[in-house]
Specification:
heterodimer; A: mainly alpha; two-stranded antiparallel sheet; 74% helix; B: 70% helix; globular
């Protein structure tokens, strides 16, 4: 029975929320529904984590737990196939935290906004619980489309342009992806029983090498666009700058993780041979992303642009680490997704709150805000410190795991790229401290800012949720690292060394 | 005292940080200040208990066969990166960490006490105490680290506490930019540290200090003689790790952040930028000393950097007008002495006396430099200015500050029987053992030290008395003078501690002998410096100005710190910012994004051209139909024949 599987509730809860929202009339009802949904998703994620760990502790050695498969479209052998390993569990936890915080960050938004917001979250959750290529792709598209309307309708600045650009570029990525998935499907089995199931395809390992050489770049670039890989990252600064607060949070926090997760779950997991052959090309591109994004962030003046370029740098590090193809670095990559998701969501939440008060995002027009809005200021400093990799916050753990893992390659090519990537810790410090110094410290630039009020309770709740998550990962990294590493080592085993 | 209690010295300050940071705003200044101070007092008592048990107790395996043992009091796994590379958080007790426990808690406690008076009524008083607790926790965690990654973790944490404290007066642009500079320069150095750790741990497959320093030869050999650009990989790793230390310890050319860091409140300068954090680099080299001994080329490099820094900083200190800047450059110079002492230390020379001397000087310097800074704080508190031009003749108004300041000046100048004499003498002995050139260079710099310190002393307390108006300077309150008296008292007696019995490179005890030829020369040079300063600055005189005028460009260059800051500004703003960041940002917007937009424009243009075909006019369709039909007919006909 499909409803016995806890995973399906990650899709059903937002779906039900959509229905309730459609029926709701008053603001009070909308808030009650969205808060309940956010809380339920958090509870589900916690429950799943506990259950997952119990099963593992009880000796479950299967690659995927909570598996279930229901035939959907027989001619193409498409199933609704569900299952999670440690990596998906971590991603689901991340998504639920961000949806929860996002609900509070968009407290005063209308009903229609929340409809699209929860539709987007269906796509996100669905993507992470699926292990069937087709359903994965479907949920992926479900997550992308609402973005167009959320930015185009509730955005700011050049919102139509940005929404169009973002959607077209990501759709372009999807086109590559579709080709890649079809290619994989037609080589999914040596004996003619074609399948869309990820685990089966990986087990069959029947994609011919010359096809892998074609399909790997298609899928990697397809997902890489969403992961903001250089040179396909330019949707990110414009898109984030125009998006409303919670959409930026969800987009940078979770949606960009779909890219990284897809790169590794589809491209590398299914085509390990091509991954080892072609990793060098993408290592160069992602290595460039890391430094390039950081340098670009140094001269931006719009808070959201700074953060968007910072995301290019941090997400570049995710893909960079995935391509190192060893357990340590890839574990670091997932940790970095988790960490970046949380802190960038925190950043965008705070930027939204500050923008809502000052009506500008230009750092040259602001200054000395720490004195006026100390709560938001302190949170911004904490987010900044997490971003520049302060020990005790999540970023440090992820970066160090990545660097140690990447350094396990002893050839000059990998060494040079790793050291190049390491330099980002200095450049990150430069742009973070530049923003903090201009925005929060120094004299007050605009005397109208003196009358600003500090965060409301829902804004505080949203920020504190994310900070608690960032700190808890920073303090107890081994918990998350172990969950990820266990599943990761299974995947790394299929990669030819 | 049981060693497992040692974890408390980290836990108590951390709890205080959380308490004062989260609910401090609800407390009154008085409650917050005394709460922080009392908690720090308890930490100090525990740290003393641990250190004394370590040095003088038995029964917990402190000494075996005449060698002091390294004891891991506790160790918790924090993050297992791989099966062998595991980051642990724990407490390692050995002579240097036990000594550092004493230094850090003593100075930190006195600074906590002092700040109650100094920071009285300041906005953000609770925040100040929260940051002080955070700093103390991080610094203690750094020195008791059981593995190099734990050290790196706390290394970053002291960096950020330093950033927060330098920028404490965050509405002042100078403080903000100083804090930014301090963080970024040290972060740049930490990049070297990190890469060094990565190289070292890749070959050695461990982060653990006991394994790294216990079997130094096998660690070095684990690299299998791999080389990079002519140097062995391990030498590179150790040099890069030292780069991290050089950044924190403000060694030339990474020193530029420290003078600016004086924008922070003065107690912070005393604690962080004089006594504790800035010696982290010295501590790092000392901690990994057995490894450095295997790569003597790196030790040579360290020695040269140390001597250059010591000379550079001393020459700049001679002409500065801001008293905290003088003290800052003097700190740089003194730390360079400690670094040099480590660089020249070899086991063959006199039981590796340089190592002991370095740690001894670290200890005595922490006390007298903290005393000097806190004294300077009392003076600034009284005259509300950092410039010596606003001071003069203060000895009448501030007798206690005067005496303690004088004692510390005598100590730093190396006049017996004050502590600085003993420690500096051992450094000189070690330097002369290694090479006469190093010895002579350090002796000359010691003379310069005596000169600039007494120049400072006379300009503040003697010289021309200023018109102080109605607000006559007055002595600081007791919470501020008591720390001064305690530190001065330590400075008087600390020289007689038989340091060689406690802290040596191989942890075996030996007796220190004073080499009277070296000591005699250094006393003589110091006296020359002092006499010169007395003649020039004790009474108001035009001689110093005339001397400065006679060699204007040199004076000017020294005053401008030999244009190092300008050089850095040029590199960061004109090269990195203008030639890398801006072009990249432009490239991104116009080339990369331009290409993406161009796709859209091309598509748009093409469709606008093609759309004419779908005009809806039947005669057009018919025309096209006939042309097409005729062309097709021709093609078919051609194909047939």
């Amino acid at each position: 029975m499909i409803f016995d599987n806890i995973l399906i509730y990650f899709v059903l809860v937002p779906l039900l929320t959509l229905g309730c929202l459609a029926l709701s009339r008053t603001t009070k009802q909308i808030r009650a529904i969205t808060v309940t949904a956010g809380t339920l998703l958090m509870i589900l994620a916690t429950w799943l984590t506990v259950g997952y760990l119990q099963q593992r502790a009880a000796g479950a050695t299967e690659e995927m737990l909570y598996t279930g498969s229901w035939l959907w479209f027989e001619p193409l052998n498409i199933h609704l196939a569900l299952g999670v390993d440690g990596i998906s569990v971590v991603m689901l936890v991340l998504s639920s935290i961000i949806v929860f915080a996002g609900v509070f960050a968009s407290w005063e938004m209308p009903r229609e906004y929340f409809l699209w917001f929860f539709l987007l979250s269906i796509g996100v959750f669905g993507f992470f619980i699926s292990i069937d290529l087709f359903t994965m792709f479907m949920f992926y598209e479900v997550a992308l489309i609402p973005m167009y309307l959320l930015i185009g309708v509730w955005g700011s600045g050049r919102k139509e342009y940005s929404a169009m650009k973002l959607t077209l570029m990501l759709m372009g990525g999807s086109a590559f992806l579709m080709l890649g998935i079809l290619g994989i499907y037609y080589h999914s089995s040596a004996d003619g029983n074609l399948t869309m199931n990820l685990v089966e395809i990986a087990r069959n390992n029947s994609i011919p090498h010359d096809w892998q050489l074609l399909l790997f770049p298609l899928t990697f670039v397809g997902f890489g666009v969403l992961g903001a890989m250089f040179p396909f990252h330019t949707w990110s600064p414009d898109g984030h700058a125009s998006a409303p607060t919670a959409v930026s949070m969800l987009h940078a926090g979770v949606l960009m993780k779909l890219g990284g997760y897809g790169c590794f779950r589809v491209a590398i997991y299914l085509m390990p041979w091509a991954a080892t052959e072609l990793a060098w090309i993408f290592l160069i591109l992602t290595g460039i992303s890391v430094v390039y994004g950081a340098f670009s962030a140094c001269v931006q003046t719009d808070l959201k642009y700074i953060n968007a370029y910072s995301s290019v740098s941090h997400c570049g590090l995710v893909l960079f680490a995935i391509l190192m193809l060893n357990t340590t670095a890839m574990t670091g990559a997932i940790l970095q997704m988790l960490s970046h998701g949380l802190m960038t969501a925190l950043f965008f939440a705070l930027i939204g709150m500050i923008y809502g008060r000052t009506h500008t995002r230009d750092i040259r027009e602001m200054g000395g805000l720490m004195k006026i809005i100390p709560f938001l200021g302190a949170c911004y400093v904490i987010a900044g410190l997490a971003s520049l990799g302060l020990p005790g916050l999540s970023g440090f753990v992820a970066e160090m795991t990545i660097f140690v893992g990447s350094f396990a390659h002893s050839d000059t090519f990998h060494r040079v790229l790793t050291i190049l990537a390491c330099t980002s810790i200095v450049i990150t410090a430069v742009y973070i401290l530049r923003v903090v110094g201009k925005l929060l410290y120094g004299p007050v630039q605009d005397k109208h800012h003196l009358e600003l009020t500090d965060a409301k309770w829902w804004e505080r709740l949203s920020a504190i949720t994310l900070i608690v998550a960032v700190v808890s990962i920073g303090f107890f990294p081994n918990f998350w690292s172990d969950i990820i590493k266990e599943s990761m080592s299974v995947i790394v085993n299929v990669i030819p060394q | 005292m049981d060693f497992s209690l040692s974890i408390l010295v980290l836990v108590i300050p951390f709890v205080m940080f959380l308490l004062l940071g989260l609910v401090g705003m609800k407390m009154s200044h008085k409650v917050a200040g005394w709460l922080g101070t009392v908690a720090m007092g308890v930490t100090t008592v525990i740290a003393y208990g641990i250190a004394f048990t370590y040095f003088f107790g038995t029964g917990q395996g402190q000494i075996a066969e005449g060698v002091r043992q390294q004891i891991v009091a506790c160790d918790y796994t924090w993050l297992a990166i791989t099966d062998t590379l595991i980051i642990k958080l724990g407490v390692l007790l050995d002579p240097i960490s036990a000594m550092m426990l004493i230094v850090i808690t003593t100075v930190s406690f006195l600074v906590h006490l002092y700040s109650i008076g100094y920071m009285h009524g300041e906005v953000g008083f609770q925040r100040f105490y929260a940051y002080l607790s955070l700093f103390t926790m991080s610094m203690l965690g750094l020195v008791v680290a059981t593995n190099i990654f734990q050290m790196y973790i706390f290394w970053e944490l002291v960096g950020v506490s330093s950033y927060l404290l330098i920028g404490f007066y965050y509405t002042t642009p100078a403080a903000v930019s100083a804090s930014k500079k301090a963080f970024i320069v040290t972060r740049f150095a930490d990049l070297g540290f990190l890469i060094g750790i990565l190289i070292l741990s890749y070959y050695a497959q461990t982060f653990d200090f006991l394994q790294l320093t216990g079997e130094p030869t096998s660690v070095i050999q684990s690299a299998g003689g791999a080389t990079f650009l002519g140097g062995s990989v391990m030498a590179w790793a150790l040099a890069l790790i030292f780069m991290g230390g050089a950044g924190k310890s403000a060694m030339f050319p990474l020193h530029i952040w420290l003078p600016d860091a004086m924008e922070g409140p003065t107690p912070v300068s005393a604690l962080i930028h004089a006594a504790t954090m800035v010696v982290a680099g010295v501590f790092l080299v000392a901690r990994m000393f057995p490894l450095y001994l295997q790569e003597t080329a790196v030790l040579e490099l360290i020695t040269i950097i140390g001597i250059v820094t010591a000379f550079y900083a001393a020459s700049v200190a001679m002409v500065q007008s801001d008293i905290k800047r003088v003290l800052a450059f003097s700190t740089i110079s003194q730390i360079a002495f400690m670094i040099t002492a480590l660089g020249v230390a070899r086991p063959e020379y006199h039981e590796g006396v340089g190592y002991m001397a370095s740690m001894f000087h670290l200890f005595t310097h922490a006390m007298f430099k903290a005393c000097l800074f806190l004294g300077a704080g009392a003076i600034i508190h009284a005259v509300h200015s950092n410039e010596y031009t606003a001071m003069g003749g203060l000895r009448k108004y501030m007798p206690i500050t005067n005496i303690t300041f004088l004692i510390s000046c005598l100590a730093i100048s190396g006049i017996p029987p004050f502590s600085g004499f003993f420690s500096k003498d051992e450094i000189l002995v070690a330097a002369y053992h290694n090479s006469a050139f190093y010895g002579i260079a350090l002796s000359v710099i010691a003379g310069m030290t005596a000169f600039y310190m007494f120049r400072l002393y006379y300009l503040i307390f003697w010289g021309e008395e200023r018109d102080y108006g109605d607000h006559k300077p007055h002595e600081a309150p007791a919470v501020m003078t008591i720390p001064l008296i305690i530190l001065a008292a330590v400075t008087v007696v600390a020289g007689f501690i038989p340091f060689g019995h406690y802290v040596t490179w191989n942890r075996e005890a030996f007796d220190i002998h004073i080499d009277w030829t070296v000591a005699g020369t250094s006393i003589a040079i110091a006296l020359v410096g002092i006499v010169l300063a007395t003649v020039l600055y004790r009474k108001p005189s035009a001689v110093p100005t005339r001397m400065a005028d006679s060699c204007r460009w040199l004076w000017r260059a020294a005053y401008k710190r030999f244009y190092m800051d300008e050089l850095y500004m040029f590199v960061t703003h004109k090269i990195i910012f203008a030639l890398i960041c801006k072009p990249i940002a432009w490239f991104d917007r116009h080339i990369i994004d331009g290409t993406m937009d161009a796709f859209a424009h091309v598509t748009h243009y093409a469709s606008s051209k093609i759309k004419g075909l779908q005009s809806g006019l039947v005669q057009n369709y018919v025309t096209v139909y006939f042309i097409g039909a005729i062309l097709l007919a021709i093609v078919t006909w051609l194909c047939v024949i």
